[in-house]
Write a structure and sequence with these properties.
67% of the residues lie in helices and 4% in strands. With 273 residues, it is mainly alpha-helical. It has a three-stranded antiparallel beta sheet.
Length: 273
Amino acid sequence: MFESVKLAAALIGSSICALYDLKTSNMLDALAIAMIILGIGIHTYESIVTVSVEPLLSAVTVGLSFLAFGLFMYYRGYWGGGDGELLVAIGVLLPGGLTGDPLFSLNFFINTFIVGGIYSILYSFIVTRKNKKVKREFLKSVSEDRYYLLFFAFSSVLLFSVLSIFSNNPVGIVLGLLLASMPLVFKYARAVERHGFYRRIRTEDLKEGDVIGEDVPEAGVKMDVIRGLTKHEVNAIKKVRKFVIIREGVRYGPVFPLALVVSLLGFSPFYFI
């Protein structure tokens, strides 16, 4: 019941949140929360009509599981709070996809990391492609480890090529190439982390919603949690600093509607097991 409503809410709502995140680096919290409330409401109604607790139980179980993970990522400083909200919203709206598949939420969850990895690499490259510090550190790191990188790449491609021949599955060669590129990806990500998303600005240009890139103990502000500054914190920083470092980071919102589309199209990482 209400599959089209749930699908529309998940796709349209997450897409609007993603576009807003790309434009402002903030999340539309009210919209994400409204999606969660709508999902719980629809599944509650379905449970009443069908005289079965399964629809509501499924939505709540997936929602709480995603919430726990989102909180972990938030307090570890990997995600902003809005990313977790969007994960929960989609999970609550479509815990079983459109067909009630019990593995759909797990597929979607894993796909967020597959899509997120590709997206983060492309986003980081586009944003930092003209950053000389990032290029310099990346090339220096590759030069220092060139023999290890060549050996790892050769070994990975050779191993998976042999496995592909014996299993008669060409996917292995693709996996070998992907594995061979991973050290380069990690080195580039490290260079971006150090130089790509931090910049020093005058505090007079600091605004509510900016993410701090250094501790400001005089104002009681720490950078261990990724979140936008409040108006009170901005005013407190302006009183004690003339310059401050802010963190811009990957605007991760688009990952969730993209991962949802990939999951709805039937891609499952379990196909390769």
